[in-house]
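Check the record.
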Amino acid sequence: MASHSTTHTRVSFASLTPQNVGTVRKLNTVLFPVRYGEKYYQDILQAEVEPFCQLVYYNDIPVGNICCRFEGRDLYLMTMGVLAPYRSRQIGSQTIERIIESASSHTKPKIGRIYLHVQVSNEDAKRFYEQHGFKEVGIQQNYYKKITPRDAWILERRLQNADK
C-alpha cells in the first residue's frame, strides 16, 4: 500500500483483488443500506476500473472503499463510503480527490464527467460531493427499490480534459 501523499501518511489505498474483495463485501454491509449482487463484485475486479475501485486504509486498517464503472465516456461512482468512526479525518476527501485526479488524467477512454446518485434524504453526502465540485443536475424518481425515500439526486462533476 502506497500512501497517497506525504502530508496524509495515515491514509493509503489498495487496488481490489480476489484476495481482498471479501473486505469490500464486509465494509459494504456496514456502509450501505442496500445489498450488492455477485455481478457488482465481479465488475469491480475488472482491470479497466482498477484505478477507480480502491480499498481505503487508515493506519493499515481497512476503513472504506470507492468503486466506479465506465459508462461510455462517463465514470459512474457506484459506491463510496468510510466507516463512521473514521469520518471527519479527510479520508473521504482524499479518496474522492484521488478518483478525480485519476479520471482527469485517464486517456482510454477520455473521461468527460464523473456522476453518481445520492438518496434525497442524505444531505451530508450531497454537501460532501458539492464541496468537491459536483453539481446537482436532476432528481431520478424511484431510483431506489428497497429503501425509502426512493428518489435520488443526480450529481456530476465535469472534467477539464473532456474536450481535449
Observations:
- The first strand starts at residue 2 and ends at 3.
